[in-house]
Amino acid sequence: MARQLQTVQAQHRVPDRGDAWILGSSVASLASAIHLICDANVPASQIHILESRNTPGDGIISTGDPLNGYDHRPGCMPSFNDTCMERLLALVPSTIGPGRTVLEDMKELCIHDHDEDVPCTHILIQGDHGPVKLDTRKRLDLKNRMDLMVLISKSEKSLARKRISDFFRESFFGSSFWITLSTIFGFQPWHSAAEFRRCLGRYSSEVRNLNTNKPLDCTKYNQFESIITPMIVFLKNQGVEFRLNTRVKDIATRLDSGTVSISAIRTLRDRAEETIAVSPKDIVIISLGSTTSGSSSGTNNDPPSMTTMEAENELDENWSIWLDLATQNPSFGDPYNFCTRTPESRLESFTVTLKDPEFFTRFINLTHDRPGLGTFVSLKDSNWMISICIPRQPFFSSQPENITVFWGYGLRPGHEGNFVRKPMLYCSGQEIMTELLLLLGFPSASILGNSITIPCVMPRRTASMLPRTYQDRPNVIPDGTANLAVIGQFVDIPDETTVSLDYSVRGAQLAVGRLMGFCKEPVLELAIDLAGFAVECVLKSL
User: Fold this and answer.
1) pLDDT at 79
2) Which one-letter DSSP state was computed for residue 460?
3) Which residue intervals are annotated with compositional bias (Low complexity) in the record (predicted)?
4) Which residue among 91, 153, 239, 424 has the highest number of C-beta atoms inside a 10 angstrom radius?
5) Spatial CA neighbour of 26 closest among 60, 77, 62, 74
6) Residue 299 φ then ψ, to 5°
7) How far apart are CA 8 and CA 480, in angstroms?
8) Rounded to whole angstroms, how far apart are CA atoms 287 and 26?
9) 392/389 Cα distance (integer angstroms)
C-alpha cells in the first residue's frame, strides 16, 4: 500500500507578504514559479530562482550548429506528458504567435501531423535479409500474463528493493509489450518493481495505446525550444528574478515547537558569498536530485569524458542539498540510494547531424514512415539496446534547410557493441553511427562522410526508477516542516509514477497549493485501477 500523504496544517499565506525562493531551474522549478503567479497570485517580483549554471533549465538544453553538430541534451528517452503538463502549458504564452498558448500550438501541430495508422514506436529485428518490423500486435503468453498479475496484486510496501526481474521470466523481456514500455519509459529489468507497478496502474486504461502519438508529444522544435524556453520567457517577462551562476552552499534551519523551517540560504555567486535571510512568511521550494547531473558530451571523434561517470563526481547542488538535508532529518529520505548507482541508472544519447538525405531516404524505405511523426524505432537485437527517433524537421529553429537531424539513445551503454567491439561509453560519435548503420544494413562510407554524431552520457538518467524502500523518498511537504516543499522526480506522490515529465509538474502544483494554503490540487483524469488491469491481463491478454 502506498504511503498516505500526511495531514498538513498549511497556513494560508498572503501572496504579497513573503518571498518565494526556488532552488534549481528544472521543469518542476519553472512550473512552481508559473503556478505561484497564476494560481497563488504571488507577485512575480517576489519569486527568485537560484541556478548554478549560466542558463536556466537544469542542464536540459539543446546546443550546437550545422558545422560542429547539434547536441540534443534531453534526447535520452521520449518525452511523455499528461494532464498536469497540459494544464501548465495552457498558462504559458506561445513564442510563435500572439494571443496563443504553448498548448494551443502543440494541439494545432498534432492535428496537422496526425496519422492514425502510424504508431510512434516500431521494433526492428534481424531477418534473413536485413532488419524487419516486429508485429507489435502479438500478445503476451499466459505464463507472462499470470506473472504480470502476480506483480500487480502485490502491495507497494511488499515490493521494497524488489526488481522487475524478480517477477518475470526471460521470455517476458523479449516480448513486444516489454520492449515498447522499455523504449517509451526507459525501464530495465533491474529497475524498481514498485515503479513498474505504478506505471501499469497509472496508464492501465490506455496501455495498448502508449506507442501512439498524443497531442502533448507534438512540438515544432526540440523540447527545450518548444516547452522550456517559452516557460522561461514568460517568467522573465512577468518579472521573476533568475539568479544564474549562483550555487547554494548551505541551508540553515530553525526548530520551533518540533517544526523545522528554513531560516537562511547561503550562496556563492561570482566568488562572492551571500546569506539570504528567510523569514517565516517566505517559502522555499527545493528541486531534489537531478537526472542530468554528471552529463558529459563527446564529439564525432572523441567519446564523452570518463570522469563524470564516477559516482562521486559531478554531483550538482540539487544532490548536495538533498544529501545535507537527509543527514539532518530522516524525513528527507535517502539520496544515496539514487545518486551512487550509476551502472544501473546511466543512459547514452546521441544526436546526428546529416548533410545529405541518404540516411533519411533509406530509413523511410525501411520503416515506411514519413519524417516528422516522431516515430521511435527500437533495435531489438542491438547489444546497446539502441532506439532512434526521426523528429519533425527542422528540429532546431536555427537549422538550415539542407541539414537534417535525428537522435537516439542506448539503454545499455556499458555493453560491447554488435559490430564495434567495445562499450558504447568508450565510443566516439562516429563509432556509434557506424554501429547503427551496420545494424540497419545501410552502407556506412557515404553516410558517415556526411554526418556528425555527438554522444552524451547521462550517468543518472533513470536514477528515479531504481529499486527503493518506503522511506527513500520524501513527501512533497516533508514531515515536520513548515515553509518548505521539495519537488522533482525524487519526491513521493502516492500511486503516481515518476516515468513521465508530468510527475515533476504534478509535484510543483502540489507544493504551491499546500505551501500557500489553498486546495487547488491536480485532478487525476485517469483512474488507477490495478484490479481491473489484472483481470484484463488474464482475460484479454495484452
Assistant:
1) 60
2) T
3) 289-299
4) 424
5) 60
6) -135, 180
7) 9
8) 7
9) 10
Q: Which residues pair with 152 in a beta bridge?
A: none
Q: Which residues of 279-318 are buried (b: 16+ CB within 10 A; e: fewer)?
A: eeebbbbbbbbbbbbbbbbbbbeebbeeebbebeebbbbb
Q: Residue 208 is which amino acid?
A: R
Q: What is the pTM of this model?
A: 0.91
Tens-place pLDDT, residues 165-196: 999 999 999 998 899 889 888 999 999 999 99
d(CA 229, CA 239): 15
Per the DSSP assignment, residues forming a β-bridge with 285 are: 22, 485
The three state secondary structure string of 16-32 is HHCCEEEECCCHHHHHH
Q: What is the DSSP string of 312-340?
A: TS---HHHHHHHHHHHH-GGG--THHHHS
Q: Please report the beta strands in 47-93, taking only residues with DSSP state E, as ranges in sequence order.
A: 47-50, 62-65, 69-72
Output the nine-digit C-alpha cell for 332: 528527507
Q: For the chain, give percent helix, strand, coil, nearest 5.
A: 35, 20, 45
**537531424: which residue's cell?**
405
- For residue 167, what pLDDT is reported? 97
CA distances from 371 to 363, 481, 510 (A): 9, 50, 38
Highest mean pLDDT: which of 26-30, 200-204, 219-223, 289-293?
Answer: 26-30
Q: Residue 366 half-sphere exposure, CB side, CA atoms within 13 Å? A: 27
* pLDDT over 80 at 209, yes or no: no
Give dist(CA 395, CA 69) in Å, integer: 13
> Three cell numbers at 377?
524505432
Instruction: Look at residue 394 and tell me whether its pLDDT is greater than 80.
Output: yes
Query: CB–CB of 30/231 below 8 Å?
Result: yes
Between 74 and 353, whose confidence is greater? 353
